[in-house]
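#help-structures
NK: newbie question, is this the right format to request a structure? protein is Phage abortive infection protein
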Amino acid sequence: MNQKLLIIVVSVILVLPMAAYTFQFGFGLWQSPSEWSDLGGYIGGVYTPILALLTLTVLCVQIYLQVLQHRQHLVSLQEKELSDYLTQLNYELDKKIEGELTLRQFLLSLLNEKNVDDISQMDLSLIWGLNQSHHKLYSMWSGVRASLKYIENHSKIKNYESTHYVVQKNKIIAYMSPQVCSSLDKFNYAMLFSLQQINGTRIDEMAVQYEFWQDKSLA
């Protein structure tokens, strides 16, 4: 409802009772106090609940706007955290680990072409050792996934839908490249799988739950 229509509706609500009274009983400078008393009682009886309802409506609108503002603030915080995670990840991936070989290149060669079966048959000590040397890969990418999931959940709330999730997901892909995102998803999965092997606990993370896993059909 736009502002002009709202003003018209409120004006009609306020004018209609007086118009009805005037139409039924007329209006003038009456001599009898009882006639003025009747008018005062009518105005009080009709306009008190109307004004109370309008006040309640205004309060509900204010609360609604505050909720929207609060949600937008929380999403903005998650978007900032996501950008910080990506900056840290890029810095880590650009580190040289052997000669001119960067961590990014090593990660791509290690995991980019792998599927779930390949990862389950890998020497997971290699994954664990990589995490020991470069712990930011797992922690920062887990942070990226958590922030993106938070934004997704808020973007899909009924009547509050937004494009924040799509925009941020495309931002990650553009910032990191699809191949690197896929490899980081697989590294995250491999870490969880290695923890399952070490601790004997069940890990429910599946490849199809990852946002950037490129070979989901093979999962």
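mod (FA): yep, format's fine, and the tokens are attached above. Residues 208 and 217 are 8 Å apart (CA to CA).
NK: thank you!
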